[in-house]
Amino acid sequence: MNTYVCRFCRQPSDPSQPTCPLCGAPVDIRDSVSESGWIEQPPIKDMARIQFGQSHCQIAGTTVPVAEFNLAQQEMVYFSHHVLLWADPATRMQNMSLRGGWKRMMAGMPLIMMEAHGPGHIALSDNHAGEVIALPLQHGQSMWVKEHRFLTATGNIRYDWNSNDVWFVTGDDNEQETHYPMGQFGDIFTATDRPGLLLLHAPGNVFIRDLKQGESLLIQPTSLVYRDTSVRVHLHLEYPRNMGFPFWHSRLDYRNILVRLVGPGRVAVNSVFERPEGMEPIRNHSYATRHRW
Amino acid sequence: MTCGAPLDIKDKVSDSGWREAPQLRDMTEFKFSNSTCQVEGQLVPVAEVTLSPQDAVYFEHHLLLWKDESVPLSSLKTAGGMKRSIGGMPHIVTVANGPGRIAFSRDAPGELVVLPLHPGMELDVREHAFLVASHSIQYSFIRIKGLANMLHGGNGMFMDRFITQQYPGLLMLHGNGNVLERTLRPGEKILVEPGGFLYKDSSVTMNTTQIPLKTGLLGHHNMYLAEMVGPGRVGIQSMYVHHGSGE
Question: What is the rounded distance in angstroms from the CA atom of residue A174 to the CA atom of residue A159?
């Protein structure tokens, strides 16, 4: 009986291969774990193969990796249309129907999702230096993914999206602006009738951590790549102690906007994140913990 | 032990004398004061600092990647708030006090440059290249002199200046792409693309020099480069916004 479980995709795997056949992670390397417990996601080795169903995916390149699919008859992947790098003419492509087009457009989420049906070859890549992350999902397993990190998924993975419920409002009585530091919506992927493969792309390096029950951590909102749906997330406002800093504008507010993750579950962050938005005072916000130093 | 550079590799020096900054190995750990810093990742590296109770570090507040809940934050007193705002420099510099863990990263592929500063050193750094510094290092900024330097120098109006007095300290920068360093002899000059300038000893003077370029009968352009005059170290980065073209 095979008892080897891949350290990165957490699925029973084959240790006799140079890379995990389910997620492409190298088998023959030691864990890179920081003192605080972050495990560095090892880059998928150049030309590593990942098997799913009767099809397979090969990862080419290491700086901006390309995911190249050899799709078998009756098998399908879907992806946002802007990540398509090339395709065989034989590969049948069509758009996928999505609910909530207006909401998605207002939230800046991709509006067009494409399906590619085998047999045929197709290759996908994002346009940032970073890593491709392969997440094999077991039947019934769900994963939350930050918007714009999704690269592709196999046809049996259900795609849904819901509100992140992490927001704050700035402005005055005349003009108010609602900010969504993690994006307004998050993607939820669930393997429905059988195991499936989810591929993400994250700029920079990726680090994983397993939070114990009740364990918490503060992170930059835009650095979160994915999390188990068991991990709770809410806004955290931290006000550093002002050591006499002269605010020349009374309408500026000195604070750090973070999100607080509470275990149990796995979380992944990437080392590239967007700069936090402005410094206007916050008038209203979603549920948040606060700390004034 | 103080900068994390591998000891078992040869210096990589180009024929013209540029020394490549040593690539820090993944999970390299080094000490400063009673605290430690661990560098994780190689594409966009993260600096994870474990602060001891008496130590502190400061940083531009938007560089914080994650932190322990228990790490207190406060502001660093910086002079010239209005000037800094107009000059596009970070308005607020934040201080994190130990004990606890905190991590920083920037937003572009590149290298961490670890510069342990001995007592009595002065280093000038391109604005927005500074990642984190230990509290024993004094932080100020200097105005780039000369209108031509400001308008055409491609380095903005100000540079960060880091000074150590009686205590040593640790300064970490983020260079985009690869980082190269060269030590200029007294009076030795070198021309550098302004966007590529990363840091220099304060003993190195920097001026903008204009190179006229003719393209056809009527075409006339000027190219501006930063002229560095030794003595001292100059650090450059290989990836930059090309000055004048915005590309």
Answer: 39
